[in-house]
Amino acid sequence: MPVEYTLEAEDVASARLLAIGIRPPLEFSLFAAALAGLLALSVSPWRLASSPLLVGLTAGLAAYRLMQINRVRQAAVAAFNRNYTLREVTVASWDEDGITIQPLTAMMERIPWSALERVKENRRIVLFQQKSGAIHAVPKRAFPDKAALAALRRKARAELGRGRPR
């Protein structure tokens, strides 16, 4: 089943973050929980003398991580703005042999299932990572319904599972 889509800058940023293993909502939640716990500990009867130091270190680490994430996003937006192919209409389709990515005016890319290393997803995109390191993102909004997205998930996971040693 083919799906047609046009990427947005945030799709590209989301794909890059996901490809390198960064999940901002999860990380923000964990930092917030750690800070809340440390702050609660600092006012409890069992407080540690080093609680303010731990709160400061955790907040500093969170701020540093936010800056890293922002840099990845800025680089992704710059790449999106530089590369016209990322902004044009694209069709993705899949069959028994693999997935095909066809931008409107660029060369088609045929990716056999065996060339994929993993398939990841977040709330915004489905990400195909090739063993070569190349990535392809298909926005979830491109799928006409949840059943079409589920069909791609099943097929990709089945094919990836087939190529892995047990």
Describe this protein's structure.
With 166 residues, this protein is α+β, with helices and mostly antiparallel strands. It has helices at 9-19, 24-43, 51-82, 84-87, 146-163, and strands at residues 3-5, 90-94, 98-103, 109-112, 116-121, 125-130, 135-139. The strands form two sheets. It has a four-stranded antiparallel beta sheet with strand order 1-2-3-4, with no helix packed on it. The longest helix has 32 residues, at 51-82. The two termini are 30 Å apart. The model has no long low-confidence stretch (mean pLDDT 88).
Number of domains: 2
Distance between the termini: 30 Å
Indicate the low-confidence ranges by residue numbers: none
Form type: elongated
Look at the structure and give the CATH class of the largest domain: Mainly Beta
Binned, the helix content reads 40-55%
Largest sheet: 4 strands, antiparallel
In total, how many beta strands? Answer: 7
State the order of secondary-structure elements, H for helix, E for strand: EHHHHEEEEEEH
Strand order of the largest sheet: 1-2-3-4
Number of helices: 5
Strand content: 15-25%
Counting helices, strands and paired strands, the structural category is alpha+beta
Q: Might you state the CATH topology name of the largest domain?
A: PH-domain like
Overall pLDDT score: 88
Query: Do you know the CATH architecture of the largest domain?
Result: Roll
The value of Rg in angstroms is 20 Å
